[in-house]
């Protein structure tokens, strides 16, 4: 196990270099495909390398592997809120997107983009074979869900949270304890309606924290008038 | 001349070459042309950049208008002996010859292939030989711009397989390397690498190199050609990636150029506009609406102030066309991300005039709205391409619209996801606090659906920028406390800092003017 990891790191370094230095080269296609599989198994991610591969598939459609493309899309979904999923779709031909597995992934993305968490988890449960193939999927989506909740709520009722991250009952209790201990969540008693979770303060759910960036003047602008002042 | 994006149908039969030759003798060289090439050749050898620029911009245009309105220039073979059969000059002449052909006539397939060969020869010379020339930036930009344009044009042409003649198909099969996407991208990449331009720009920031300060020209006896071609190739790569639908990589290619400053890219108006147009479009597709709005606003203001100076130039039509397209893109951005305060007054009034009514309808998000989004997007978008080689199997089809249709479809999909946000905005404007239950009632949805709408609003108005940070572009924001929505309106901030800076500079200008009067 200890021997394998440094080797893996060495391979990833080389692929990233390839993408940076020699991306328009059909010979690197197999390396990029292996790299996708590696990202899946080692729970890492590289958008640039995956875009490079999708481009090569665009240049030579007969070499496209729909299985690899599906894995790239799942990884992109896990990168939300970044728009990586659409960036990948821009490079995938329409007829490929019509295939069943891609239609499902597009529906999953749609649910996440429009905050329909319950529908997402229902659909994901029906498509276990797609999403279970990529370790870390569940946690990544839960992180995204919490991100959206943190933009929106100062205090969130327990059922809303439960639905968004698809955790209930005792597991949810454990999860909340963990968050309270490590991420600054505070658990309150709501008035007769169960638990309220107070999320950490940030500039999005606490507008008074928003820095008034509009009125700051960058230093470069001031330096332009130094000759006048001096 | 730079790209004519309105690519028109070429019947493209083999007879075209002969048809063009009728009434045109490729070997006849009028005296004015002889004089033109002799003088241009001399100026290039003597590195008289100003004279080269005059001849390239003005004389070439004048002669084209007068003598070659709808015929090609004399063939390179006919003029070669006037210029010592100089290989490099002949390649440059041919480049101009083809560019003129594309602009005034419709190239045949054979001519397209020959033009590709010419670019290969010319680029090989620049990349692998020590070239001792100084050429005007306008010319060097035009080379890169035209190269990408002809690639785009070829892809569009090749994708219309349905009515191809047997000779054309045979030629396509035989010359399958002409205008192949790998070749195009690798030439542009080679220019960027071999010129070392990225390192030069880096070192310039630290004061080690001079490049922008000299507009890219080399005042120490060397050549500016490779460096400046390398520089413009970064814009070329941005453009090609946009044509492929890869916006992320396109923006990455442009990264070494700081578009918040003047630079060599602003030294040629065509390059300035092409850079910002594609930068803005890529940001639009990546949902970074604020960034797109900012840049479109700046360039539209710039064009408004300076277009009168370009009325006589061959690029004028292109400038106007891109101007109109960017107004359309700006209208789209502002409909998806209402932030009118980011737009200058002058630009805003132009925008109202051109698209005021359409923007009002777009924000209603009904069927008519989608039709308008479709219309504006289709009008203003780049001419997307399918880069792969065609299938020669029967039945032959036209697939030249496929790439465009995909980008349009995905764009409208995004618009559709934002459909309900407009409704929410209207309500949030009216209330400072409102319970989820009540708002759900007013909007005639259940609470669960309302929550999804509010999540969507938050997600769509908080984009991820290029550094991975979350930035809010919401003009109207809110937070929820249990089941109460609290609305927060961002007040327009008086920009005191900018105002004072402007007044200081203005006062200084007035004092300087007054001083000047005294001296007289």
UniProtKB/TrEMBL annotation, chain A:
InterPro entries membership: ARM-type_fold (IPR016024), CSN8_PSD8_EIF3K (IPR033464), eIF3k (IPR009374), PCI_dom (IPR000717), Transl_init_fac_sub12_N_euk (IPR016020), WH-like_DNA-bd_sf (IPR036388), WH_DNA-bd_sf (IPR036390)
Domain PCI: 45-204
Pfam family, one: CSN8_PSD8_EIF3K
Major location (coarse): cytoplasm
Keywords: Cytoplasm, Initiation factor, Protein biosynthesis
Segment forming the signal sequence: none
UniProt subcellular location: Cytoplasm
Coiled coil: none
UniProt-listed Gene3D superfamilies: ARM repeat, domain 1, Winged helix-like DNA-binding domain superfamily/Winged helix DNA-binding domain
The keyword Endoplasmic reticulum is annotated on this UniProt entry: no
Family membership noted in the UniProt record: Belongs to the eIF-3 subunit K family.
Complex and partners: Component of the eukaryotic translation initiation factor 3 (eIF-3) complex.
Function: Component of the eukaryotic translation initiation factor 3 (eIF-3) complex, which is involved in protein synthesis of a specialized repertoire of mRNAs and, together with other initiation factors, stimulates binding of mRNA and methionyl-tRNAi to the 40S ribosome. The eIF-3 complex specifically targets and initiates translation of a subset of mRNAs involved in cell proliferation.
Full protein name: Eukaryotic translation initiation factor 3 subunit K
Annotated source species: Hibiscus sabdariffa
UniProtKB/TrEMBL annotation, chain B:
Keywords, in A-Z order: Cytoplasm, Initiation factor, Protein biosynthesis
Entry keyword Cell inner membrane: no
InterPro entries: eIF3l, PCI_dom
PCI domain mapped to chain residues: 295-494
Coarse class of the protein's main subcellular location: cytoplasm
Pfam families: Paf67
Location of this chain's protein in the cell: Cytoplasm
Family designation: Belongs to the eIF-3 subunit L family.
Physiological role: Component of the eukaryotic translation initiation factor 3 (eIF-3) complex, which is involved in protein synthesis of a specialized repertoire of mRNAs and, together with other initiation factors, stimulates binding of mRNA and methionyl-tRNAi to the 40S ribosome. The eIF-3 complex specifically targets and initiates translation of a subset of mRNAs involved in cell proliferation.
Subunit structure: Component of the eukaryotic translation initiation factor 3 (eIF-3) complex.
Name by which UniProt lists this protein: Eukaryotic translation initiation factor 3 subunit L
């Amino acid at each position: 196990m200890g021997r394998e990891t440094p080797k893996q790191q060495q391979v990833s370094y080389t692929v990233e270099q390839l993408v940076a230095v020699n991306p328009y080269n059909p010979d690197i296609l197999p390396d990029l495909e292996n790299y996708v599989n590696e990202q899946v198994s080692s729970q890492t991610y590289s958008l640039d390398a995956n875009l490079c591969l999708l481009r090569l598939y665009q240049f030579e459609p007969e070499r496209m592997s729909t299985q690899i493309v599906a894995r790239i899309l799942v990884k992109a979904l896990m990168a939300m809120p970044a728009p990586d999923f659409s960036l990948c779709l821009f490079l995938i031909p329409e007829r490929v997107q019509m295939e069943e597995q891609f239609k499902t992934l597009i529906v999953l993305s749609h649910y996440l983009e429009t905050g329909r968490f319950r529908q997402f988890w229902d659909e994901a449960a029906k498509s276990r074979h797609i999403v279970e193939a990529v370790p870390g999927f569940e946690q990544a989506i839960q992180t995204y869900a919490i991100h959206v909740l943190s933009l929106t709520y100062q205090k969130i009722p327990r059922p809303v949270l439960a639905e968004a991250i698809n955790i209930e009952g005792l597991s949810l209790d454990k999860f909340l304890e963990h968050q309270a201990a490590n991420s600054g969540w505070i658990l309150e008693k709501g008035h007769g309606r169960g638990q309220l979770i107070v999320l950490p303060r940030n500039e999005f759910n606490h507008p008074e924290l928003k820095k008034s960036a509009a009125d700051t003047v960058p230093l470069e602008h001031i330096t332009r008038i130094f000759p006048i002042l001096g | 001349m730079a790209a004519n994006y309105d690519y028109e149908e070429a019947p493209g039969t083999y007879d075209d070459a002969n048809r063009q030759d009728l009434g045109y003798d490729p070997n006849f060289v009028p005296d004015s042309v002889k004089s033109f090439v002799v003088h241009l050749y001399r100026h290039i050898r003597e590195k008289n950049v100003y004279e080269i620029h005059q001849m390239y911009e003005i004389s070439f245009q004048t002669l084209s208008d007068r003598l070659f309105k709808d015929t090609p220039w004399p063939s390179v073979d006919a003029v070669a002996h006037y210029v010592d059969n100089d290989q490099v000059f002949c390649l440059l002449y041919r480049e101009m010859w083809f560019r003129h052909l594309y602009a005034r006539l419709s190239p045949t397939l054979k001519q397209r292939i020959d033009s590709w060969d010419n670019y290969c020869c010319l680029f090989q010379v620049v990349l692998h030989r020590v070239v001792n020339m100084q050429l005007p930036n306008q010319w060097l930009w035009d080379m890169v711009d035209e190269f990408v344009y002809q690639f785009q044009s070829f892809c569009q042409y090749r994708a219309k397989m349905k009515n191809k003649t047997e000779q054309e198909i045979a030629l396509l099969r035989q010359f399958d390397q002409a205008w192949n996407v790998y070749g195009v991208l690798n030439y542009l990449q080679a220019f960027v690498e071999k010129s070392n331009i990225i390192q030069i720009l880096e070192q310039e920031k630290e004061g080690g190199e001079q490049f922008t300060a000299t507009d890219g020209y080399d005042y120490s006896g060397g050549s500016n050609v490779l460096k400046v071609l390398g520089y413009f190739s970064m814009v070329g790569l941005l453009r090609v990636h946009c044509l492929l639908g890869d916006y992320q990589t396109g923006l990455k290619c442009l990264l070494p150029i700081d578009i918040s400053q003047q630079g060599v890219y602003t030294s040629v108006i065509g390059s300035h506009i092409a850079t910002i147009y594609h930068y803005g479009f890529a940001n639009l597709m990546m949902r970074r609406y604020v960034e797109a709005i900012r840049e479109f606003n700046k360039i539209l203001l710039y064009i408004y102030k300076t277009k009168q100076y370009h009325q006589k130039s061959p690029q004028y039509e292109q400038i106007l066309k891109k101007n109109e397209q960017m107004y359309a893109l700006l209208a789209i951005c502002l409909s998806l991300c209402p932030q009118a305060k980011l737009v200058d007054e002058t630009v805003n009034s132009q925008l109202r005039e051109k698209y005021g009514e359409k923007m009002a309808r777009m924000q209603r998000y009904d069927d008519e709205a989608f039709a308008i989004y479709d219309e504006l997007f289709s009008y203003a978008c780049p001419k997307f391409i399918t880069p792969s080689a065609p299938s020669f199997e029967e039945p032959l089809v036209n697939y030249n619209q496929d790439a465009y249709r995909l980008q349009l479809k995905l764009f409208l999909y995004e618009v559709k996801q934002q459909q309900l946000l407009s409704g929410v905005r209207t309500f949030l404007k009216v209330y400072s606090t409102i319970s989820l239950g009540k708002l759900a009632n007013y909007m005639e949805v259940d609470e669960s659906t309302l929550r999804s709408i509010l999540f969507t609003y938050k997600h769509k108005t908080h984009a991820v920028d290029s550094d991975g940070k979350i930035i809010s572009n919401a003009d109207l924001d809110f937070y929820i406390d249990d089941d109460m929505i609290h609305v927060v309106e961002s007040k327009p901030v008086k920009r005191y800092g900018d105002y004072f800076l402007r007044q200081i500079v203005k006062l200084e200008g007035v004092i300087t003017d007054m001083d000047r009067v005294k001296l007289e």
